């Protein structure tokens, strides 16, 4: 307080106002008192108007000063106040003639019945009446004062009451109804009203307490609950004075103030405080709160545990230095920590987190924060967390992480090796999990699937090889289920890389087991055999062909030797006969010479065919092309042939149009002669032979038909191959080497024509060939 009013007591005034009894001030406020003084005569409250009237209206406050200082111009009021401080109520009047004032002055008692002070309520007084009307004025004055008193009592923020020692009310102020709902008459008339309406939980003790206090004739104060008409519980603070006469309690007088709100606020505050305290004690951090003077203001149980503070240090007033010393003694690095603590005390604003190590190996994480009240720093909060396990776990975790990292690197290395090995292997290799999903493959296998390794991983077998899955999946599943490998199974499959093409593979599937024996998937090894198979097939074909060639050679040798030998036998016979005839000078019959010559012709024909065939095979058969008339060629050839055909009718139908072709006369005649010879040879029944020449579009068409043994339909396609003879040929009884038609086809095709046969077994045969007509 800084007022300087010349009275020289400022220094204690502040303190004295603050130490005014709260109860006195509370009663004063309830009475709307103009002036409140304590039992020392110090002013606690003074109405501004009154302060102005007594000369203290210039800004300085008289509160806290002795009334003698302040009220020296109002001696009548001071007298009344002194009277009230002795415990008696007073009504007094004073002041100048025109400004007369009246005061009602009441003593206020504390819990122990001691006088706490007095409250005065002042009001302007009516001017003084003449002497004749003195009595009447006094009457009126009394009535008015009584009214004022009642008004005062009824406006009090509490129930003013009076009762006999049996707690039966003889008076209650109107507040009774406002606070609890029960009208004053009920308070007065209901015999046991108070007892009946006290909250059941408070009834016994409150009554006992009141009776005891009454017996002891001491004023008392307590808080209890009463029930309002609407069922509410109302907390009341009761201040009771026991009025006694000749040492016996006579009446009770008091005031009940509604403290429900304060009570609830206090309860809430207590709950919060208890919750905070419980929280404070239950947190795992040890907390110490120190004020700005480094005095310990709070600590929790955990703090004591963490620092193992001995109990004796906490008895009575705690010495912060001793606590610090006890803690520091446990540190590994006490000087450093102590220096840090003092540095933080020297910098109140600073926040700090640090780690301290204890001699016993424990590690504490220490946090230090300023404690603030509003904007003011009022101390420092130290909290300690035992992070020993956490740090150990972290160190262990780091060790495990490092080990895992090393393991991962080793694994990656292994995988790199495996990948190198896999990808450089010339065979397909892959690993699949139990769901038949690829977890690793090599390039060779991925290539078969038309994918890259990266695309393949994570996909199922069915996705990768839709064509083959139906065959492969059951095999793989069996390996996984039984643990039995499939080794070296040959499969013919279509793979996605080459759709529509069958390829050959040799596959092996092995179960992949963990150390514990659990099958986690399978490894597949796929070796392609397609090229090998092809090579083998080629080898087989070549072998077959070689065999065939040998067979052909052998057949040829046997046929050729047979064909060559066949004419030789009759030729030899004829020559012997000719020899005999010559030696015996007999005439030589011409038919014998003709027959010999015919056998020579046959021999020469066989040899010509063999020569032509070998020239065709070597690509050395030479043809001479010249324009020639087919009519002429056919007529001449038929004329040459007729002598051989004495027993078969030979018919010729010629085309009216002159058909000229560009060709080799002798070779074309050879073709026609060969067809005629065959017709003759394979017609043992001596049926007619018919030759026709027609035009067919741009070609000349020559046909030779017979009614002989015919050719089985399934043999037609082979007729023009070298050494081929139809299976029914031998029954004709004629030999042959199967070279004639082969040579015919070559000659016709060399002329740009085409040759074919139409026949049925037993119904003769027609051989036709075309030649392009020269335009
Ligand atoms: P070949 O010397 O065996 O007659 P070709 O090459 O002339 O040889 O004839 C091949 C085969 O065609 C004959 O062996 C025979 O089986 C059959 N063939 C040819 N012409 C006739 C035909 N006109 N009637 C029945 N079969 C014939």
TrEMBL record:
<dbReference type="InterPro" id="IPR005467">
    <property type="entry name" value="His_kinase_dom"/>
</dbReference>
<feature type="domain" description="Histidine kinase">
    <location>
        <begin position="559"/>
        <end position="775"/>
    </location>
</feature>
<feature type="domain" description="PAS">
    <location>
        <begin position="414"/>
        <end position="483"/>
    </location>
</feature>
<feature type="domain" description="PAC">
    <location>
        <begin position="220"/>
        <end position="271"/>
    </location>
</feature>
<keyword id="KW-0808">Transferase</keyword>
<dbReference type="InterPro" id="IPR000700">
    <property type="entry name" value="PAS-assoc_C"/>
</dbReference>
<dbReference type="InterPro" id="IPR052162">
    <property type="entry name" value="Sensor_kinase/Photoreceptor"/>
</dbReference>
<feature type="domain" description="PAC">
    <location>
        <begin position="489"/>
        <end position="541"/>
    </location>
</feature>
<dbReference type="InterPro" id="IPR001610">
    <property type="entry name" value="PAC"/>
</dbReference>
<dbReference type="InterPro" id="IPR004358">
    <property type="entry name" value="Sig_transdc_His_kin-like_C"/>
</dbReference>
<dbReference type="Pfam" id="PF08447">
    <property type="entry name" value="PAS_3"/>
</dbReference>
<protein>
    <recommendedName>
        <fullName>histidine kinase</fullName>
        <ecNumber>2.7.13.3</ecNumber>
    </recommendedName>
</protein>
<dbReference type="InterPro" id="IPR035965">
    <property type="entry name" value="PAS-like_dom_sf"/>
</dbReference>
<keyword id="KW-0597">Phosphoprotein</keyword>
<dbReference type="InterPro" id="IPR000014">
    <property type="entry name" value="PAS"/>
</dbReference>
<dbReference type="Pfam" id="PF00512">
    <property type="entry name" value="HisKA"/>
</dbReference>
<keyword id="KW-0418">Kinase</keyword>
<dbReference type="InterPro" id="IPR013656">
    <property type="entry name" value="PAS_4"/>
</dbReference>
<feature type="domain" description="PAS">
    <location>
        <begin position="145"/>
        <end position="204"/>
    </location>
</feature>
<dbReference type="InterPro" id="IPR013655">
    <property type="entry name" value="PAS_fold_3"/>
</dbReference>
<dbReference type="InterPro" id="IPR036097">
    <property type="entry name" value="HisK_dim/P_sf"/>
</dbReference>
<dbReference type="InterPro" id="IPR003594">
    <property type="entry name" value="HATPase_dom"/>
</dbReference>
<dbReference type="Pfam" id="PF02518">
    <property type="entry name" value="HATPase_c"/>
</dbReference>
<dbReference type="Pfam" id="PF12860">
    <property type="entry name" value="PAS_7"/>
</dbReference>
<dbReference type="InterPro" id="IPR003661">
    <property type="entry name" value="HisK_dim/P_dom"/>
</dbReference>
<dbReference type="Pfam" id="PF08448">
    <property type="entry name" value="PAS_4"/>
</dbReference>
<dbReference type="InterPro" id="IPR036890">
    <property type="entry name" value="HATPase_C_sf"/>
</dbReference>
């Amino acid at each position: 307080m800084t007022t300087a009013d010349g009275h020289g007591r400022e220094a204690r005034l502040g303190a004295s106002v603050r130490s005014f009894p709260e109860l006195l001030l509370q009663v004063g406020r309830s009475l709307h008192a103009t002036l409140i003084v304590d039992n020392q005569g110090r002013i606690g409250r003074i109405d501004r108007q009154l302060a102005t009237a007594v000369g203290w209206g210039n800004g300085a406050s008289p509160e806290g000063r002795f009334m003698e200082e302040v009220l020296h111009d109002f001696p009548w009021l001071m007298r009344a106040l002194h009277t009230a401080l002795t415990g008696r109520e007073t009504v007094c009047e004073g002041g100048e003639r025109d400004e007369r004032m009246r005061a009602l002055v009441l003593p206020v008692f504390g819990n122990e019945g001691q006088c706490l002070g007095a409250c005065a309520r002042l009001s302007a007084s009516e001017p003084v009446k003449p002497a004749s009307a003195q009595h009447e004025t006094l009457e009126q004055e009394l009535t008015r004062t009584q009214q004022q008193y009642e008004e005062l009592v009824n406006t009090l923020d509490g129930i003013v009451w009076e009762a006999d020692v049996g707690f039966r009310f003889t008076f209650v102020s109107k507040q009774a109804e406002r606070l609890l709902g029960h009208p004053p008459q009920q308070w007065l008339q209901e015999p046991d009203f108070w007892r009946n309406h006290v909250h059941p939980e408070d009834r016994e003790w409150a009554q006992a307490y009141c009776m005891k206090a009454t017996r002891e004739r001491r004023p008392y104060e307590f808080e209890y609950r009463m029930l309002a008409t609407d069922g509410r519980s109302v907390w009341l603070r009761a201040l009771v004075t026991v009025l006694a006469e000749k040492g016996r309690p006579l009446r009770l007088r008091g005031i009940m103030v509604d403290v429900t709100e304060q009570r609830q606020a206090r309860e809430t505050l207590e709950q919060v405080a208890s919750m905070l305290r419980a929280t404070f004690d239950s947190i795992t951090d040890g907390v110490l709160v120190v004020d700005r003077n480094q005095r310990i203001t709070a600590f929790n149980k955990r703090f004591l545990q963490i620092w193992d503070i001995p109990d004796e240090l906490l008895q009575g007033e705690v010495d912060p230095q001793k606590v610090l010393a006890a803690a520091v003694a446990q540190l590994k690095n006490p000087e450093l920590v102590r220096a840090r603590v003092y540095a933080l005390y020297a910098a109140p604003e600073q926040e700090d987190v640090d780690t301290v190590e204890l001699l016993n190996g424990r590690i504490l994480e220490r946090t230090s924060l300023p404690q603030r009240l509003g904007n003011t720093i009022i101390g420092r909060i130290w909290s300690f967390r035992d992070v020993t396990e956490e740090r150990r776990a972290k160190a262990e975790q780091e060790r495990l992480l490092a080990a895992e990292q090393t393991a991962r690197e080793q694994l990656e290395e292994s995988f790199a090796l495996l990948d190198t090995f896999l990808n450089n292997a010339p065979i397909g290799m892959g690993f699949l999990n139990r769901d038949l999903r690829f977890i690793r493959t090599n390039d060779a296998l991925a290539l078969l699937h038309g994918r890259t390794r990266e695309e393949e991983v994570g996909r199922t077998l069915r996705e990768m090889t839709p064509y083959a899955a139906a065959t492969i999946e059951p095999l793989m599943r069996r390996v996984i289920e039984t643990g039995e490998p499939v080794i070296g199974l040959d499969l013919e499959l279509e793979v996605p890389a080459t759709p529509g093409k069958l390829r050959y593979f040799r596959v092996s599937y092995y179960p992949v087991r963990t150390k514990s024996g659990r099958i986690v998937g399978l490894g597949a090894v796929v070796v392609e055999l397609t090229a090998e198979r092809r090579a083998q097939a080629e080898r087989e074909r070549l072998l077959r062909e070689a065999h065939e060639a040998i067979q052909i050679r052998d057949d040829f040798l046997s046929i050729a030797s047979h064909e060559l030998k066949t004419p030789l036998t009759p030729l030899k016979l004829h020559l012997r006969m000719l020899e005999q005839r010559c030696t015996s000078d007999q005439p030589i019959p011409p038919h014998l010479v003709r027959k010999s010559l015919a056998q020579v012709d046959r021999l020469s024909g066989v040899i010509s065919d063999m020569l032509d065939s070998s020239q065709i095979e070597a690509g050395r058969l030479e043809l001479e092309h010249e324009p020639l008339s087919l009519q002429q060629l056919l007529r001449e050839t038929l004329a040459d042939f007729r002598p051989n055909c004495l027993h078969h009718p030979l018919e010729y139908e010629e085309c009216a149009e002159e058909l000229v072709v560009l060709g080799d006369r002798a070779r074309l005649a050879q073709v026609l002669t060969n067809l005629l010879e065959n017709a003759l040879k394979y017609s043992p029944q001596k049926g007619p032979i018919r030759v026709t020449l027609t035009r067919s579009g741009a070609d000349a068409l020559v046909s030779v038909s017979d009614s002989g043994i015919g050719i089985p339909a399934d043999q037609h396609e082979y007729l023009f191959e070298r050494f081929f003879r139809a299976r029914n040929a031998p029954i004709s009884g004629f030999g042959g080497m199967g070279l004639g038609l082969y040579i015919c086809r070559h000659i016709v095709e060399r002329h740009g024509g085409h040759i074919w046969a139409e026949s049925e077994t037993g119904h003769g045969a027609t051989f036709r060939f075309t030649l392009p007509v020269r335009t």
